[in-house]
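Lab notes, practical 5.
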Amino acid sequence: MSAFAKLSRIDVSKHVEKKGQLSYLSWAWAWGVLMEHYPDSNYIFGDNEVHADGSVTVHCSLTVEGITRPMWLPVMDNRNKSIQNPTSRDISDAKMRCLVKAIAMHGLGHYIYAGEDLPRAESINETELKALSDMIEVTETDTDRLLKHFKVESLQAMDSAQCRQAMTMLRVQMFHRTGKHKVNE
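Output from the prediction step:
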């Protein structure tokens, strides 16, 4: 089994934290889980990229089982907006978030990032609602648990980005159960 397959099977939902509009995993928890499974993994931080407007992008490469995946992340505030002229603390925090994102590229909590680069979407539409309802039924997912995960009262209260993230989570769940990527395979 690949490292991605193994790590993506781990349920991180109880360890997801919120800061402003962002969901994230603690770097210490994510690194600890990675070390439990792949203790020879290692990471390096690349040079910070300073942009003309004073904002900064950090870079991290993580190697797991001989596979290196690079990742980058702008130094952001809790509203997902770049910080101009960030402090050393802002940069340090961004580096550790970037490490967690690199860990996600190897599977652990990757579904958290589904749709992260999309703006806050409008309410879920009827087509999305039907597709999500069908996927919940097919995967025999506990709807109340899903609603609690997204901190909404009903499926109709979800926005489109949350719907896409839920669909990704359910597809991963279905793949791990059946080995199929699509409902009708």
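Observations recorded by the TA: Residues 126-178 form one domain. The mean pLDDT is 85.
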